[in-house]
Design goal:
The complex is a heterodimer of chains A (250) and B (457).
Chain A: E1 10-14, H1 19-30, E2 35-40, H2 49-52, E3 57-62, H3 71-82, E4 87-90, H4 98-103, H5 105-133, E5 136-141, H6 154-173, E6 179-186, H7 206-219, E7 223-226, H8 230-239, H9 242-247
Parallel strand pairs in A: 1-2, 1-4, 2-3, 4-5, 5-6, 6-7
Helix pairs in contact in A: 1-7, 3-5, 5-6
Chain B: E1 8-12, E2 21-26, H1 31-39, E3 46-49, E4 65-68, E5 77-79, E6 84-88, H2 93-102, E7 105-106, H3 118-123, H4 131-134, E8 141-147, E9 153-156, H5 165-171, E10 180-187, E11 189-190, E12 195-203, H6 206-214, E13 220-225, E14 237-244, H7 252-255, E15 266-267, H8 280-293, E16 297-304, H9 305-309, E17 315-316, E18 327-334, H10 339-351, E19 359-364, E20 378-386, H11 392-405, E21 409-410, H12 420-426, H13 430-440, H14 449-453
Parallel strand pairs in B: 2-4, 3-4, 15-17
Antiparallel strand pairs in B: 1-2, 5-6, 6-10, 7-11, 8-9, 8-10, 12-14, 12-16, 13-14, 13-19, 18-20, 18-21, 19-20
Classes of the chains: A alpha/beta (250), B alpha+beta (457).
């Protein structure tokens, strides 16, 4: 459980190979977390040194975002390994290429399923556990791409928009239960997943996203942006007339 | 499908207002209802809770069943011949003191707040300003009634004829994890008035403060320290030493009704500011003012017991002054001879400009046999700090190491952030306590957030 100075003991990472997710977990481990569960397809056989070296016990479970029937079981498995889940980081997802999606609608639907409905089942399973244990924070990696969907990546963006709305609703439904949801809206983060897309303005490193999450966990925030400037920026973008928005470059 | 535990689901936190967790809360009014509630605890167990003055997570059981024991009240029975009082465990220290003073008696030990229940006071084995002369509450406890999760009600005493003295002592300081105390019998002593005769000394350094505390012939003594002062003034403070006043000590107007006990309390509005008002500027100004206004030396000042023992009770809900982030209290004891550790920690707090307006130094004496009871002979320092102070976690972990190296320990009733390994090393009798506890609660029904965090069970 989170202690009075914000240190947590256990962390579950859904999307155990996500660079942003691992950066967040690494930050929590450096701050004192001692039990980590990495959930990814096929598990994560060799735990990253960045987690084991500061002294965390790293476990791994099999997790397939596209198999919603298994998600409750995955959460139960993590609980069996480390007990109460103090923080759950939901960081899985696929970015893909808009052009490829448009050429292969079925592939687009599969990606949208991972990026949206996969989170619905996984996060509801997590929420049920957090409600039962009476404490804990679910960190949901949303994206500015979902704040206002752009024509250049609307398959990905629309799924993130769905996820963002879902996470906010879930946060409200958990109010008073002792469990919380922290919605994270990073901008462009250069990682393996985004290597094929052109850089966007105001990039953030995975470490900066981790900083924002760590601060948000301590302050009890419901939403954090990384970098912070994206909040006023996107507030403005939401008001931009459609004919301009449509013409906006990447 | 497992039946959810009874009761309303409520967010609970400690006095520091940090780390709230949700639990089902029931309010039993009789020992029978306590036993019934315990029998209906679910997978996440059950825990008694008093008035919620423990700073951290000691009286929380996330997802479990919390027994709000403030409903366990009823007649208080004073046996003036034997000098004993028997009261239900939900009786507050405030109510007990009021009852006793009206009849010319006083409690053997009272903590710095009177807003605790008798049951909670036993579970924390509380100490007062007289620890160096009178030890902690457990030393004056003649008997207690304990309802254990198996539904049994046991009357326990401290000695070999006390039924199960091991369980008695495991309960004293046992943080509510051995059972629910429903009633207790306490030795009390006669007093002539509801007032104290207080000697006050303003000190210019920590050395001088310790000197005054050490040579005290007084029954009660305590020092408030200004840990915000720097350099030579570091640890300057105000030492107040006292004894119970006799009617002859009182000014004439008070002599007419010397046992009259008045409680005064000013409520703080039930609003929590988003940012605390306890910060470097307010604490710096407050401490300078408090030190500066204290008399250099005053003898025999007459003060009501409430004003001397429980000054902060006058400001109801003062913990909200720390704002939404809440407060952490750090209280440790180090043995006599480890004054360097005490001074070192005081120095580091001053260096870090940590704003504490409640730094309280006490001299501790004889311990009780409770394996988890905090007090040990030596110096105890308690410091309140805003929970959102940058880097606080790391600073306190370093203090933990120094306290441990000096042979000292932390007070569980105040703790909200220590590591399990540290606390295990500080309480070497923990394994013995666990053995006694597991006999009274073989199914492990009783559990708290603190017990989970510190792996006490």
């Amino acid at each position: 459980m989170r202690d009075s100075v914000g240190t947590v003991r256990s962390v579950l990472l859904l999307g155990g190979r996500s660079e942003i997710g691992l950066a967040i977990v690494e930050r929590l481990v450096r701050e004192g977390a001692r039990e980590v569960v990495l959930a990814a397809r096929g598990g994560v056989p060799s735990p990253p040194d960045a987690l084991t070296e500061p002294g965390a016990a790293v476990h791994s479970v099999d997790f397939d975002a596209s198999l919603p029937d298994t998600h409750t079981g995955t959460v139960a498995e993590a609980v069996a390994l480390v007990g109460d889940l103090d923080v759950v980081v939901d960081a899985f997802g696929v970015l893909g290429e808009q052009a490829a999606y448009e050429a292969d609608p079925a592939a687009a639907a599969r990606a949208a399923a991972v990026n949206y409905t996969g989170h619905v089942s996984a996060d509801l399973a997590v929420a049920a556990r957090l409600r039962e244990q009476g404490h804990g924070t679910l960190v949901v990696l949303s994206s500015v791409a979902g704040v206002r969907v752009r024509r250049f990546n609307f398959v990905y963006g629309s799924a993130k928009a769905g996820l963002d709305g879902f996470a906010q609703g879930l946060a409200d439904s958990l109010h008073g239960s002792g469990a919380r949801v922290l919605v994270v809206r990073p901008g462009y983060v250069p990682t393996r997943m985004s290597a094929h897309v052109a850089p966007a303005p105001f990039p953030a490193t995975p470490g900066q996203v981790a900083d924002a999450v760590s601060a948000g966990l301590r302050s009890g925030a419901t939403t954090v942006w990384a970098p912070r400037v994206l909040q006023p920026l996107f507030t403005g973008m939401r008001l931009m007339p459609r004919f301009l928005w449509r013409r906006l470059g990447r | 499908m497992i039946q959810p535990p009874p009761g309303r689901r409520t967010l609970l936190h400690g006095w520091g207002r940090t780390a709230p967790t949700a639990a089902h809360v029931v309010r039993p009014r009789t020992p029978g209802q306590v036993a019934e509630a315990l029998s209906r605890a679910g997978e996440r167990g059950a825990l008694p809770r008093g008035l919620g003055r423990a700073y951290g997570d000691a009286a929380q059981d996330s997802g479990g069943l919390v027994l709000d024991c403030t409903g366990l009240t009823g007649p208080v029975r004073l046996d003036t011949g034997r000098g004993e009082v028997t009261a239900p465990a939900g009786t507050s220290m405030d109510a007990l003191i009021t009852h006793l003073l009206g009849r010319g008696f006083f409690v053997p030990v009272t903590p710095g707040t009177s807003r605790v229940t008798l049951g909670g006071a036993i579970a924390a084995d509380v100490h007062g300003k007289n620890h160096h002369t009178d030890s902690s509450l457990g030393a004056h406890l003649r008997a207690l009634t304990l309802v254990t999760p198996d539904g049994r009600t046991r009357r326990l005493g401290p000695g070999p004829d006390g039924g199960d003295p091991d369980l008695f002592w495991a309960t004293v300081g046992g943080m509510g994890l051995t059972g629910v105390v429903t009633e207790a019998t306490l030795a009390v002593f006669p007093v002539g008035t509801a007032y104290m005769r207080v000697d006050t000394d303003r000190t210019g350094s920590l050395e001088r403060t310790l000197e005054l505390m050490a040579c005290s012939g007084h029954r009660y003594s305590v020092a408030w320290l200004d840990l915000f002062a720097r350099g030579g003034a570091l640890g300057r403070g105000v030492v107040t030493r006292a004894r119970h006043a006799e009617p002859g000590d009182l000014p004439a107007p008070l002599r007419r009704d010397p046992l009259r006990h008045r409680g005064t309390s000013v409520p703080v509005p039930p609003l929590t500011p988003p940012v605390g008002v306890v910060n470097r500027w307010t604490v710096g100004a407050f401490n300078a003012l408090r030190h500066g206004r204290a008399p250099r030396r005053r003898r025999g000042q007459v003060q009501p017991v409430g004003g001397y023992f429980h000054p902060l009770d006058a400001l109801d809900g003062w913990n909200r002054l720390y704002g939404r982030p809440g407060a952490v209290q750090y209280q440790f004891v180090v043995p006599f001879g480890a004054e360097d550790t005490l001074a070192g920690i005081a120095e580091d707090l001053s260096e870090a400009r940590a704003p504490s307006f409640l730094a309280v130094l006490k001299r501790m004496g004889r311990p009780t046999p409770g394996p988890l009871s905090f007090p040990r002979p030596g110096w105890s320092l308690a410091v309140d700090l805003p929970a959102d102070l940058p880097g606080l976690g790391a600073v306190l972990h370093r203090f933990d190491e120094r306290v441990l190296d000096a042979g000292g320990r932390l007070y569980l009733a105040k703790d909200s952030r220590a590591r399990a390994e540290t606390v295990h090393a500080m309480y070497p009798e923990l394994p013995a306590w666990r053995r006694v506890r597991s006999m009274a609660d073989p199914d492990g029904v009783l559990v708290s957030d603190m017990a989970r965090r510190l792996r006490l069970l």
